[in-house]
Amino acid sequence: MSLHVVHLVTSFDIGGLQNGLVNIVNGSDPDRVRHTILSMRDRIELAARLRQGEVISLGIPEGRQTGAYRLIAARLRELGADVLHTRNWGTYPDGILAARKAGVRYRVHGHHGRDLANAGGEKLRRRIIGSLLGLVTDRIVALTPSMKAEYRRDFRVAEGKIVVIPNGIDLGRMAAHQADPALRSPFTVATVGRLDPVKNLPLLIRAFARMPGRSAEDLLVIAGGGPEEDRVRAVAAEEGIGASLRLLGPRSDAPAVMKAADVYVQPSFYEGMSNTIVEAMACERAVIATDVGGNGDVAGREGTAILVPSDEVGALAAELGNLRADPARRAALARRGRERVVDLFGLERMIEAYTRLYEDLVPGRRPAGLAVEGARA
Predict the structure, then answer these.
(1) How confident is the model at residue 244 (pLDDT cuts 50, 70, 90)?
(2) How far apart are CA 30 and CA 35, in angstroms?
(3) How many Cα atoms within 13 Å fall on the side-chain side of residue 363?
(4) Which residues, including other chains, have CB under 8 Å from residue 75's CB and lie 6 or more apart?
(5) pTM of the entire structure?
């Protein structure tokens, strides 16, 4: 009988965390692990992408609701979960309380990143609560070594309790898309992601405006939706590049946007593990990213990408200008970035690491002949 893992998410509609979970569920061997996704909110649009597993909405309203853990616990009892896997802080306190109330013995927590308010480190109250929760959590999963280090620093969790499992991407999905011809220009700069303050999009807009050698035909392409849309338009107008901006809204074909670009930029104030950096490298595009969070772990520091400070417009503008003037360097970065993704961020590697993590926790669930070390990094 397969092991039953229940994943608790705040919503199942959009984001790198949710996309990664789709890949894990779809790629898992159902004879070893079966998955159920509990969404605290009603937003479960990504359920349509699942080929196996189940998605259940708990219908909990936005904002913290007193007693939410009781609703979660009741559903956990019905499902008979072997493992509860909470994901990011919004699910962690209620999820662990629910697991204890429902008698779910094995508990995993996923640290996928932070919002802008906590980008510089967790606040004291959350540090205290997180440290206590760590005592009754069997494993913490961080996506990069830098994220593991920041989690240990903030929550004082024992090093052996934290494992690193990078997100994996579907290279076949990347290959299935062709560049969007409408986004081609003499030099196209692109980024993809939610229009959120933590993404620091004004940095990219201002750097593009100041890019040495920029022509009026060059394009800045931003794909995604979110609360910063009006600000993005306003900053572009202030910088006089409104005619060069292509604000696409959410796109289901992100690889087509990336492949149309000459350079992909991730300008965030903070990133845990940026799936879009990995995807852009998989699409064989040169990448510039701010040197924050896990970006260095993902993009690399040895000629596979360019890292810049998160608050220096001039540094990003200069690197954009350098790459605009040097197609050979762009091509070399793109080639080495693609090689890095193939070596480190394969989808099958991620799925097997999670499967072995769960099997290691539950006694007697590891199939004969499998090594024990798969999830450790």
Answers:
(1) very high
(2) 8
(3) 1
(4) 38, 56, 58
(5) 0.86
